[in-house]
Amino acid sequence: MNESILVTGGAGFIGSCFIRHILSNEDVNIVNLDALTYAGNLENLKSIEKNPNYTFVHGSIQNAELVKSVCEKHNVTSIINFAAESHVDRSIMNAHPFIDTNVLGTLILLEVVNELKLKLMLHVSTDEVYGSLGETGKFTESTPLSPNSPYSASKAAADQLVLAFVHTYNTPAVITRCSNNYGPYQFPEKLIPLMILNALEDRPLPVYGDGMNVRDWIHVQDHCEAIWTVYKTGEQGQVYNIGGNCELTNIEIVKSILKQLNKSESLIKFIKDRPGHDLRYAMDIEKIKIKLGWSPKINFEQGIKDTIQWYINNPQWCNNVRTGAYRDYYKKQYGEM
Ligand code: NAD
Ligand code: TYD
Questions:
Q1: Where are the domains positioned within the chain?
Q2: Is CATH 3.40.50.720 correct for 4-334?
Q3: pLDDT tens by residue, 91-120
Q4: Which residues line ligand 1 (CB under 6 A)?
C-alpha cells in the first residue's frame, strides 16, 4: 500500500504547489485538510482533483477529533503542515486568528502525531522567526529567534512547540524555514502578485516606506522540492533553512515588474511604512546544501518572467480570488489610492 501523507493547508499558495508537484512525481497518497479561509482556493488544485491518490477534506487543524479521524480513516503515516495565517499586514490588524491556527493548530497536530504514533511531522516555517538583519550577515539555523510581527511571533511559538515536543516526548518532527516565495497561484495580497495585478490594470503600486527593505526570494517550486528532500532525508529534531540566494530590495522588484510589463514607473506610490517593518532577511542555506544535497534551481530573472506571464494568462483565477472579502481588506489596508 502507498504511503499516506496528511498535507494541511494544501489549498493555499505553497501547499497546492507541493501537492501538484508530488502527485506528478511520486506514488504516494495525499489527504489535503484545509479550512478554506480567504487564502484557500480549490481552483489551485483543479489539475489533480481527480487523481485517485488525492483526497480533500474540508476542516481545521484546530479540530483535534477531525484531524485524528482523518488520519485513522486514511491510514496516514505522516503530516506536512502548511496550514497557517500567513500575511504580516493582516496579523497587524488582528493577531487572534494567527495564534489560533499557527500556534494552537500546530499543538493539535503534534498531539495527534504522539497519540497515533505517526512516523513524521514536517512543520513548514519561515525565515521571519529570526527577526531582522542589518546591512550584513545571514540567518543560520542557530540564529536566536527574535520575531517582530504578530505573524512571525506566532510562527516562532509554533517552532518552539515543535522543538519542545521533540525534546520532551521524542516526537518525530522536523522544521523547514524558508525565505519569501513567489510564483503562480499566490494570493494578490503579497508583494509580487499585488504589484503584477495593479500594474496590469494601471493602478498605483503601493510601496511601503522607501522601498529599501530586502527579502531573499525563492521560486515556490524550489521551496516544494526542498520540503520533499527534507521529508525524505532530513534528520528528526533538526531545522533546515531554505532560501533562494537572491536578495533584492522591494523597489528593485517593483521596477523590474513594471519594466517587463512595459509600464511607467510613475505608477509607483510610496506609502506610509508598515509598523515594525523588518529591514532585511537573508538565509544561509549551507546546511541543507551540504547535508541533504538540495539547492535552488530557478533563477529570479526567469522565475519572475514566467510568474508575470502566468498572471497574464489566468485572468479568471485572478478575478475569482479578488472576492468581496479581498476588496474590503484592500480598502482597509490601502484606502482610496
Ligand atoms: P497561504 O495563506 O497561501 O495558505 C494557507 C492555507 O492554509 C490556506 O489554504 C488556508 O485555507 C489554510 N488554513 C488556514 N487556517 C487553517 C486551519 N485552521 N486549518 C486548516 N487549514 C487552514 O500561505 P502560503 O504562502 O501557502 O504559506 C504556507 C506555509 O508556508 C505557511 O505556514 C507559511 O507560514 C509558510 N511560509 C510561507 C512563505 C511565503 O513566502 N508565502 C515563506 C516561508 C514560509
Ligand atoms: P510580503 O509579500 O507581505 O511578505 P513579507 O512581509 O512576509 O516579507 O511583503 C514583502 C515586502 O514587500 C515587505 O518588505 C513589505 C513590502 N510590501 C510593500 O512595500 N507593499 C505592499 O503592498 C506589500 C503587500 C508589501
A1: 4-334
A2: yes
A3: 999 999 999 999 999 999 999 999 999 999
A4: 8-9, 11-15, 33-37, 39-40, 60-62, 82-84, 86, 101, 105, 124, 126, 155, 178, 180-181, 187
